[in-house]
Design brief:
Length: about 800
């Protein structure tokens, strides 16, 4: 199966059968000759999958073009005669091209619209709503003599349901365009693109046909392309036979315009080329203000290019296909970096299955194989992209394939599960970018992109900002270009989005992508204030309330119990980060998404952050299942296994990925990470990881360490090393949980420091009552008496601060025990 899957839509039953046109509603018009030589026109209904006979010409003619109106009551056809030699598809001098308008409901009158020596193509305009029959139809006639006319056809009903042309003797018409050298019809959007040449400059223009029967010139732009003013080329005016069946060689230029609902506007161009070693093609990203010119090396110097380049529009991608040589999937939504586009060459099985014949790209991702006459629909195949992802060796291929898979959008849950399995196997194989970062950012982006296409300029699409690594087989040159000059100011739908993109390019410097730099600064400030006890209680409460919303939202979306113990503890630091990110991201979207209500934006923010957290949980759970980690890993009194170390390694990579982007982690992550670190690392490595911030000590973890581990020599070293690294507020609480001389010593030191920090030496009575001390040791007795006096004078203060059982007597006992230990008594 190829990346571009191509299920047959219609296959010919007769040797002479070929597709003539695909209408806006997806119906396919085809023609063939019966045994008597009659030309038969048929329609394949895309909804019912049934074929319908339209009309039969009992003459030896060849169909050039055909179109039927939306009600299937009128048929327009352009036909030419066979030459005496029997050669088809070529208009010889002296032959006639007949353009006919036929009443087919029921079959009745035939009107001749044109009888000329040059080829004519026909195309009915389709209304945007097909529920009500229109009293007037509109037909485009495109002449090889470089003009386009629109006919206005009034219809009426007679004798019941019989539909006839009203005033068929004179049909009003108006001139749409003239003196053009290239034209393209966009059937699905009812747009006409054409190029005329003024002072050796190619000017691209676009006409939009509207539902109210009017039409507007929407924009024009000059393009740096080479077209001859004596040339003539049509694109997508049906599957023409006069030009469509030519022998395409390496001298034929190719030009196409592609759009999609996001407001993208691309012109794809491949100039004439005589080289057998390389081929050049350009994509003008008009909605971005730049063009990219690609030069692709061919498979070998003697590999003649016998088939032309085909450009295909596939959702968020444009495919550039040269049969037998390469397939290039170009990301048109985010084309800045070449690594986001997939370039396949050579004998890759995913491109070898594509037709190795001249192809024609039609509206709506349809492809016509000119040799076989088969019609295909192209789309990205997720299964084959996943296969490619598993087997790709280059970082650029992994990056591009990952984004291709995520953009497909079908069954995202199953898809993400497959990607996560791939990441767990290849987390250390990417050197040009962080695989976990890229997955988190890209998958979160696509999770909410369907809710608003304006998100593409506000949320990061990738974690990679620059790419300097070469892509084998292809080179790239980027040039700035002028933006399209819009001719209409009151815009809706696609045109409003395109204009928004153009305004963004004009006036937005730098870009508006959200990033967590502000969150990082505020988060660090709040943590610092926590250590000093100067935090604003109301402000912090609001931030933590945001975190509660995120966690509650996640719980409503995921009702199944989690395999690993996450979201089961407070972890205020991560909750603060979570709440800050929600606050900042919500404000960011509210500033720039005008016209979207606040509730919808808040839901988008909740979707985005909960998606991030859920992906992290899924990464961990996949690794947990893969390595069959036993639940007793959560017990501290055991040694780590190889499975524990694999999960610990993945958690370290996740922490590294999220830390550089300042993304929140699920509460409980740091506790689980530290417990695995205790299992898997020697003491000096463990403390080194803590000192360098790889392991983050949480109160939950430390309490478990103090309670669950006994006081063996090894565990005492671990506990002491951890206590010495705790923040003061947590350290004071933890020391009281460890009944050990070391903790008593630490508590005593802190108590003495607090008492003596404002102590001023005063004259004292040198006589000490020795009977009040259990041991006669004057320096200690004198010191304890000073502490007792200080405690008495500050009793109210210490009662308020809650210094319970820590007093001078406790300090004395701790000092004696410590001295006894030092003396080995």
């Amino acid at each position: 199966d190829p990346i571009l899957s191509i299920p047959g839509v219609l296959e010919p039953n007769y040797e002479s059968l070929h597709v003539l046109n695909v209408e806006r509603n997806g119906n396919i018009i085809y023609t063939y000759k019966d045994d008597k030589g009659n030309v038969i026109f048929g329609l394949h209904d895309c909804r019912t999958r049934q074929n319908e006979h339209l009309y039969t010409f009992e003459k030896d003619l060849q169909a050039v073009s055909c179109s039927v109106n939306s009600e299937r009551t009128l048929l327009a056809a352009s036909l030419v005669q066979y030459t005496k030699e029997g050669v088809r598809n070529e208009l010889q001098p002296g032959s006639k091209c007949l353009t006919l308008l036929v009443e087919i409901y029921p079959v009745n009158n035939v009107k001749v619209l044109k009888a000329v020596d040059s080829c004519i193509w026909v195309q009915f305009l389709y209304p945007y709503a097909e529920s009500q029959p229109l009293p007037q139809n509109h037909l485009l006639l495109i002449s090889e003599e470089k003009y386009i006319e629109r006919y206005h056809i009034q219809i009426t009903q007679e004798d019941g349901n019989r539909v006839v042309i009203k005033n068929s003797g004179h049909l009003p018409r108006d001139r749409i365009a003239e003196d053009f050298v290239w034209a393209q019809w966009d059937m699905s959007e009812q747009r006409l693109y054409y190029i005329d040449i003024k002072k050796s400059t190619s000017i691209l223009k676009c006409i939009q046909f509207c539902a109210d029967e009017s039409f507007n010139l929407m924009f024009e732009i000059s393009l740096d392309i080479t077209l001859s003013d004596s040339g003539f080329k049509l694109v997508n005016f049906g599957c023409d036979t006069c030009q469509g069946q030519e022998k395409f060689g390496n001298h034929q230029p190719s030009l196409c315009v592609f759009t999609n609902h996001t407001g993208s506007l691309c012109v794809c161009y491949s100039p004439k080329s005589d080289s057998w070693e390389q081929i050049t093609y350009s994509v003008f990203y008009l909605h971005k203000g730049y063009s990219k010119t690609f030069t692709a090396a061919l498979r070998s110097a003697d590999s003649c290019v016998t088939k032309g380049i085909t450009f295909l529009n596939i959702g968020y991608y444009v495919a550039v296909y040269l049969p037998g040589h390469f397939l290039h999937l170009l990301n048109i939504q985010h084309p800045d970096l070449i690594c986001h586009s997939l370039f396949l060459t050579g004998n890759n099985k995913m491109i070898n299955i594509l037709p190795h014949h001249p192809l024609q790209s039609l509206t709506g991702s349809l492809i016509l194989d000119r040799c076989s006459g088969k019609l295909y629909k192209a789309f990205l195949n997720q299964s084959d992209l996943m296969w490619f992802l598993w087997n790709s060796s280059l970082d650029c291929e992994k990056m591009a394939a990952l984004h291709c898979v995520l953009s497909c959008g079908r069954d995202p849950g199953f898809l993400e599960g497959q990607i996560i399995q791939w990441i767990s196997e290849h987390v250390s194989t990417c050197h040009s970018f962080d695989l976990i970062q890229e997955f988190l950012i890209a998958s979160s982006y696509w999770s909410i992109y369907p809710e608003s296409s304006n998100i593409d300029t506000l949320l990061p699409y990738s974690s990679v900002l620059t790419w300097n690594t070469e892509i084998p087989g292809i080179t790239l040159v980027t040039d700035e270009i002028s933006l399209p000059l819009m001719k209409v100011h009151s815009l809706k739908g696609y045109w409003a989005k395109l204009n928004s993109n153009l305004e963004y390019v004009k006036y937005t410097k730098p870009h508006l992508y959200y990033h967590n730099s502000m969150v990082r600064r505020e988060w660090h400030n709040l943590i610092s204030e926590e250590k000093t006890g100067r935090r604003s209680t109301v402000y912090v409460r609001n931030i933590l309330d945001n975190a509660i919303k995120v966690i509650s939202y996640m719980e409503t979306r995921n009702l199944e119990p989690r395999l690993i113990p996450l979201f089961q503890e407070e972890d205020n630091h991560q909750r603060l980060l979570m709440g800050l990110m929600m606050s900042e991201l919500r404000d960011h979207l509210l500033r720039h998404l005008q016209g979207i209500e606040k509730k919808k934006i808040e839901k988008m923010v909740l979707d985005y952050i909960s998606k991030l957290l859920d992906l992290i949980c899924c990464l961990l759970e996949t690794s947990w299942r893969k390595h069959s980690v036993h639940p007793w890993v959560l017990h501290l009194d055991r040694r780590g296994s190889a499975a524990d170390f694999e999960v610990f390694h993945l958690m370290t990579r996740i922490l590294e990925a999220t830390d550089s982007l300042c993304l929140p982690l699920p509460p409980g992550f740091h506790s689980l990470h530290t417990i695995l670190g205790v299992h898997c690392l020697p003491l000096h490595n463990l403390l080194h990881y803590i000192d360098n911030g790889v392991l983050r000590l949480t109160e939950t973890t430390v309490v478990r360490l103090m309670k669950d581990l006994d006081n063996t020599e090894k565990n005492e070293k671990l506990k002491f090393g951890i206590i010495m690294r705790l923040p003061p507020l947590i350290g004071k609480k933890i020391c009281r949980l460890w009944d050990h001389p070391v903790s008593s010593n630490i508590i005593s030191r802190k108590h003495v420091t607090r008492l003596l920090q404002n102590y001023k030496k005063e004259p004292r009575n040198s006589m000490i009552d020795k009977s009040s001390f259990p041991i006669e040791f004057l320096p200690l007795n004198y010191f304890i008496e000073i502490l007792t006096d200080l405690e008495s004078s500050n009793q109210a203060l210490y009662d308020f601060e809650g210094h319970d059982s820590v007093d001078a007597e406790f300090v004395e006992e701790a000092a004696l025990k410590h001295t006894a230990m030092l003396l080995g008594l």
